[in-house]
Automatic annotation (TrEMBL):
Organism: Rotaria sordida
Cited InterPro entries: Pan_app
Organism lineage string: Eukaryota, Metazoa, Spiralia, Gnathifera, Rotifera
Protein name, per record: Apple domain-containing protein
Apple domain mapped to chain residues: 17-90
Superkingdom: Eukaryota
Short name of one Pfam family: PAN_1
Length: 173
C-alpha cells in the first residue's frame, strides 16, 4: 500500500505507439544516450533525473535516450525501428503547488522541486521556471515569453518584454 507522500516521488509517463522516437529541437536537450536492459530501467533513469521530461527507448538496440524537453520544443516522429517507443512525463500543478516556496524539508528528495541554497526554500529545478502553478521548462530563442525568468539563461537568453514578449540573445558588453 502506498502512502500519499509516496506519490510525490513517482513519475507517470504517457507512452507512444511503437515505431516512434523523440526528435529534439536543439542538441542541448539530449542529456543521456546510453544502453539500458529494459524500457522500465530507461524510464526509471528518466524519473530519477530531475532534468528529464521525455525518454525514448529501442528494445532491439537497448538505446536509452533522456531529454530535457517536452512536446513544445521537440516532436515524436515515426522511425524505421518498430521496437522504439517514446515516454513523455505527465506533469500537473498538484506536483508543484503544495511545495513551491515552502521550507526545504517539503521538497527533500523530490524530483520536481529542489532546495535553493540561497533562500532555503523549494524552487523549480535548473532550466525551468515558476509560472504560478508549476515549473515548465525554460524557453529557447524566439519563443514567446511573458515573464523575465522564462528564457534559458544558461544560453544567454532573456525575455524582452516588448508588445508581445520574446526570448532573445542578451547583449554582452
Amino acid at each position: 500500500m502506498s502512502s500519499p507522500a509516496h506519490a510525490i516521488y513517482s513519475s507517470t509517463f504517457s507512452l507512444s505507439l511503437q515505431g516512434h522516437e523523440f526528435q529534439p529541437q536543439y542538441g542541448v536537450q539530449l542529456i543521456f544516450n546510453e544502453t539500458a536492459r529494459s524500457r522500465l530501467l530507461c524510464s526509471a533513469a528518466c524519473s530519477q533525473n530531475p532534468s528529464c521530461r521525455i525518454f525514448d527507448y529501442d528494445s532491439s538496440s537497448h538505446r536509452c535516450r533522456l531529454f530535457e524537453a517536452d512536446l513544445t520544443n521537440g516532436a515524436i516522429i515515426a522511425t524505421a525501428s518498430q521496437t522504439s517507443i517514446v515516454g513523455s512525463m505527465i506533469l500537473s500543478a498538484s506536483l508543484y503547488a503544495s511545495m513551491y516556496n515552502q521550507s526545504c524539508s517539503a521538497c527533500q528528495g523530490n524530483r520536481y522541486q529542489t532546495c535553493s541554497s540561497t533562500t532555503n526554500m523549494c524552487q523549480c529545478p535548473g532550466n525551468s521556471y515558476w509560472n504560478g502553478s508549476m515549473c515548465p521548462l525554460q524557453l529557447f530563442e524566439n519563443a514567446a515569453c511573458s515573464q523575465i525568468d522564462a528564457c534559458r539563461s544558461d544560453l544567454n537568453l532573456s525575455c524582452v518584454m516588448n508588445s508581445y514578449g520574446e526570448c532573445t540573445q542578451s547583449l554582452i558588453g
